[in-house]
Each structure stands twice: as structure tokens, then as C-alpha cells.
Amino acid sequence: MNEEYVVNKMKKLEDSINTIYQYSNLYKRLPVLGVITLLMILIYFSVKLIIEIYEFNTLNNGFYIDGIVTVISFLFLSIFLIVSGIYINRATKYRKVKNWDSELNEGIPGILKIMENEDWEEILKEIRKAKSAYIFRSVFNFIIIWVAIGIIISFSMELLFPSFFTINTNVYLLVSFSSFIITIALQEKTLRREFDSLWNFENILNNIWRLYLEYQREKSQF
Amino acid sequence: MNIREKNHSSEFRPDLYVLARIIKVLMDKGEMNKTKLSTFSNLSYDKFMIYLKWMIERDLVEENNNVIKLKKKGIETYHELVEWVFKYVGKIKF
User: Fold this and answer.
1) How far is B67 from chain A (nearest CA, A)?
2) Coil, helix or strand for B7?
3) Which of A32, A91, A175, A208 could cross-link to A26 by cystine, CB 3.0-4.6 Å?
């Protein structure tokens, strides 16, 4: 082991911490996402209510109105997922929050300077937040793909077999289940990678915690 | 200057990186006068003097006619810090 080796380890740690900040930033923005969700639900039900009132007042053909409601539902769901997806991607954009370049150019004294000056307890808090946000983002991405596949299957079936959805209410369940299975099959590698990344978060947390405690112990000897 | 450094030198707890930096300068460039050493260590003269006093008290360096020379214990201290970094930073797994 030499100085270059430990400097490279610190560069990797810097990169990991910057990745952690990507997700802890998302964690801070989750309330905004919650507001977007509530707004979308509110607008959706308002529109649905207006259509139903219109249908009641005009004694319109229910079948025709049901079609409009279905299209609007898909439209709202798609808009919501796209808007939320863009918001999440922007929130998790990589930013170099930590920059240890000048310290690491100093070698060993620079590493000790980082150990001394960084607020490790704060970083540990950020890791915990990042873990929650990472799980949320992974679940969200999975749902987007699941819904997208569900929509594709639904429209395909409707095109191939007109009135497909009027056969039985269990058809919806069948479409949901089959799109869920297809999503798992398509996302298998991504799911494994995300599970590994989550495990890596835990690993970094343990590493930093140990490093922090050992540094405090070493410092107390002087 | 932080509160810790304002205290009497016997209560003073050094920042390990400052300590390592001073010793490394002496190891790399050899003995030198106080002004030069504070400049190479990138420290203000006042802060440097606090560290120097502490290091002399602990037998890490010695002062002769304004020239600072590293002692065996000073080299051992630096190696101890290097070992610490190798042991704990080197073990980080990703």
C-alpha cells in the first residue's frame, strides 16, 4: 500500500459522497413531489366530476362518456408520470458538492485535513436520507415502466379486439399482472444493480462511521 | 485561531493534518528557520508558533539558533499518522 493507493481511495469516497448528495437532494424535494401528486389527483377528479355532471345533465350516452373518462385517465397518468420523472431526474442530477482535489494533491497531510474538516456526522445523515430517496426513485422508475407497458398492452388489445375491456372487469387485473411480470423480466438487471447500489450505500455508511470513530480515537492520543 | 488553540499549550490539541504538514516539510526539505518553515507549512506565524511550542514540548522537533530540526520522535509520529491512513483509509471498500 502506498500514498497513491490511499489518495485514489479518497477520490472514490469523494465520488460516492457526491452521488449520495444527488439522492439526498431528491429527499429534500419529495414534499414538492407530494404537492404535484395531490394537485394532479385534484385536477383529475375535478375534470371527472365535471364530465359526470355534464353526462347527468344531458342524459348523454354513458358508453361514449366512459371512453372520454378512460382517455383522460390515461392522459393524466401519463402527464403525471412524465412531469414527476423530469422532476426526479433534475433533482438527482450529479453535482460536485465535495471537491477534495487541492487536499488530495497534498497526499497524506491532505487526507488528514479532509478527516479533520469534513462534517462526517452531517454526511452520515445525508447517506440515510439518500437511501430513502434512492428506494423511492427505484420504485418510481419501476412504476413508470409498469404503467407504460400496461398502457401499451391495453391499447394493443383494444385495437386487436375491440371492446376488449368490456368482456370482464378481471381483464384490468390480467393486464396489470401481465405488465408487472413483463416489467420484472425487462428490469431484472436494473433491479439487481439498484439492489447492489443500495447495499453500497450501507457499506459507505459503515465505512465512514468507522473512519470517523477511528480518527477521533487517533486524535485523542495527541 | 480557534478556542482550542487559544488555550495554554499543555491543553492545546493539534489538528493532525497541520502536524503532519509541518513534519513532512522538515522531512522533505531538511532543517530550516522558523519563518521559512511557517511559510512552507502554509501557516500564519502566530498559529505556527503555537504548534512549534507544542512540538518542542513533546520532543518532536528541536530549536537551535532559530533553526528547527526534526527529531526521531517527530519522524515516528509522522509514520504513525501514515500508518493510520493506510490502515483505515486503505480498508475502505466500495
Assistant:
1) 23
2) coil
3) A91
- List CB contacts (< 8 A) between B43 and chain A: none
Q: How confident is the model at residue B22 (pLDDT cuts 50, 70, 90)?
A: very high
pLDDT tens-digit series, residues A53-104: 877 677 655 556 667 777 777 788 888 888 888 888 888 887 788 999 999 9
Residues of A in contact with B91 (CB under 8 A): 207
Contacting A residues, span 113-152, partner chain B, CB-CB under 8 Å:
113, 115-116
Rounded distance between C-alpha atoms, residue A24 and residue A18, angstroms: 10
Q: Residue B47: how many CB atoms within 10 A of its CB?
A: 16
- Identity of the residue in A200, A211, A222 whose CB atom sits nearest the CB atom of B88: A211
The shortest CB-CB distance from B16 to any of A1, A12, A219 is to: A219
ipTM confidence score: 0.81
A111/B89 Cβ within 8 A: yes
Min Cα distance A33 → chain B (Å) is 31
Q: What is the pLDDT of residues A142-196, one digit of tens each?
A: 988 998 898 888 888 878 877 766 666 677 788 889 999 999 999 898 888 888 8
B64 φ, ψ to 5°? -135, 115
8 Å CB contact between A48 and A72 = yes
Where is B61: in which H helix or E strand?
A: strand B61-64
Is A105 an 8 Å CB contact of chain B?
A: no
DSSP string, A151-195: HHHHHHHHHHSTTGGGS-THHHHHHHHHHHHHHHHHTHHHHHHHH
